[in-house]
């Protein structure tokens, strides 16, 4: 079998950033998959499931309620390796196109207080596995270390 696209990226060179992972074409429709890499793979500790779960709930809620991207949001969820998230948007976008959206989304997560949307036994299969404090910390870290001063090196996958 052929390796899937995400397994062809040299994770030894990959740093936190916002990357286009792939673009899929379905007839006239395009789905852009983004790699929102929050930690340095194989170099930093991975995010624990509770904070990943919290970020997932807050980000998905934010994106699906966004006035411009709500109807374009196909999926937001964690990577299995717990070093970041995938965002799928309907349309053809570059990494730079979504940096303002990612800044506003992670500011929302950083500043969020209150009940986590969907964190109830009726709405979620593991509603107790949440860590809002560390989710806010990780959002602030991603903003300060990556998003606020992002450059080309962190918008395009590294060449092998």
Describe the structure.
This protein has helices at 49-64, 95-111, 132-145; strands at 17-26, 29-37, 73-78, 84-90. With 160 residues, it is an alpha+beta fold. The chain has a 4-stranded antiparallel sheet, covered by helices on one side. The longest helix has 17 residues, at 95-111. It is globular, with a radius of gyration of 15 Å. The two termini are 21 Å apart. The model has no long low-confidence stretch (mean pLDDT 96).
Secondary structure blueprint with pairings:
Blueprint: E1 17-26, E2 29-37, H1 49-64, E3 73-78, E4 84-90, H2 95-111, H3 132-145
Antiparallel strand pairs: 1-2, 2-4, 3-4
Give the overall shape: globular
Order of helices and strands: EEHEEHH
- Report the mean per-residue pLDDT as an integer: 96
Task: Return residue spans where pLDDT drops below 50 for at least 5 consecutive residues.
Answer: none
Strand order of the largest sheet: 1-2-4-3
Q: Decide which structural class fits the backbone.
A: alpha+beta
- The number of strands is 4
> Beta-sheet strand percentage?
15-25%
- Proportion of helical residues: 25-40%
Largest sheet: 4 strands, antiparallel
* Radius of gyration computed on alpha carbons: 15 Å
Short description:
Helices cover 29% and strands 20% of the residues. The protein is built from 3 helices and 4 strands.
Features:
160 residues; globular; alpha+beta; 3 helices
